[in-house]
Amino acid sequence: MTVRFGLVGCGVMGSDHARILRSDIAGAELVAVQDKDWGRAKRVAGDRCRIHADPEQLIVDPGVDAIVIASPDATHAPLTLAAIAAGKPVLCEKPMASNLDEARSIVDAEIAAGRQLVQIGFMRRFDPGYRAMRAAVKAGTLGNPLFLHCIHRNAVGPDYVTSDLVLANSSVHEIDISRYVLGEDHARVRVIRARSSRKAPNRQPLMMVLETMSGVVVSVEAFLDAQYGYDVQGELVCEEGTLSLDPHPPVRSRVGGSDGHAVETDWVGRFADAYRCQLRDFVAALDGGRFLGSSAWDGYVASLTAEAALRALRTGETIAVESGDRPAFYDALG
Ligand SMILES: NC(=O)c1ccc[n+]([C@@H]2O[C@H](COP(=O)([O-])OP(=O)(O)OC[C@H]3O[C@@H](n4cnc5c(N)ncnc54)[C@H](O)[C@@H]3O)[C@@H](O)[C@H]2O)c1
Known about the structure:
Blueprint: E1 3-8, H1 12-23, E2 28-34, H2 38-45, E3 50-51, H3 55-60, E4 66-69, H4 73-85, E5 90-92, H5 100-113, E6 118-120, H6 128-139, E7 145-153, H7 163-170, H8 172-182, E8 186-193, E9 206-212, E10 217-223, E11 231-238, E12 241-244, E13 252-255, E14 258-261, H9 267-270, H10 272-286, H11 296-315, E15 319-320, H12 328-331
Parallel strand pairs: 1-2, 1-4, 2-3, 4-5, 5-6, 7-10
Antiparallel strand pairs: 7-11, 8-9, 8-15, 9-10, 11-12, 13-14
Helix pairs in contact: 4-5, 5-11, 6-8, 8-11
């Protein structure tokens, strides 16, 4: 079976998804693209696929079986709803929605459609390091988990990104991966601001502390202006030992009197395997398999938790995370 993909958004992420679909995924074909900027759409399309004038037209194109959404955050919910209405599976970049009403409407629309159509691009669920942590928690090989320490540093963040946006757009990855690794929801969250770096006076590095329902403490440093590179670290601390993510790229050099690892410049390199496996498994799910990535419910809970974190940032208080019961529809997905 060949799944014919339509791609909305041909920027950094969209171009990378296009490259992966064309070069790495058996059973996938990129047949149509759309971008608000026609030049970008043309660069990705080349002479190999159709270019649509607007995303809704691409979604209802009868020659398109499945959709990838990699346009800006504000477009995610309306386009995901359009894909559900067209009955087409959709891999939507994170975050799933810009506000909670939108996020809930996607969950409701998918339940009404009666089958899973939505996967959210929380690709870290396909990273081998996080997978190993989840497996250890599930099997109990290191005893009960006590802490999950997460560090998320970018080299230089864009000027428009405020401390608020860091929670909704960046730390939302840690919110999702913590639920995935630990297999449980968060109960409460608080957020502390560090002073601003002189390199980026318009925002502050943040420390988010989440507590899970069973009492595991999750620390998340979110620092967009670390200068030296893109660096995601994670350490799971359990009763009988710890598991840590290896440095990336996984090669060590001794040269010029130093001994160490290079640091990735951005997420495209650091999570290259995860992005590839995410699309590979998405295609396998459409060919009679099971969706292994974040569901619309996971996307909703991530948005809800990020919103609680935002209130914690603004008030300085500890805020309860109240996601409510997972609908039976999602329980049945496993
Ligand atoms: N999963 C991840 O690790 C990850 C990493 C980076 C970005 N993202 C997400 O991916 C999305 C895209 O990020 P990016 O870094 O590629 O941004 P980008 O700015 O490089 O690309 C966005 C593209 O969307 C186009 N666009 C703007 N409005 C549009 C519209 N209404 N319809 C169609 N196209 C439109 C722009 O012209 C641009 O080409 C964002 O939502 C971001 O949060 C996810």
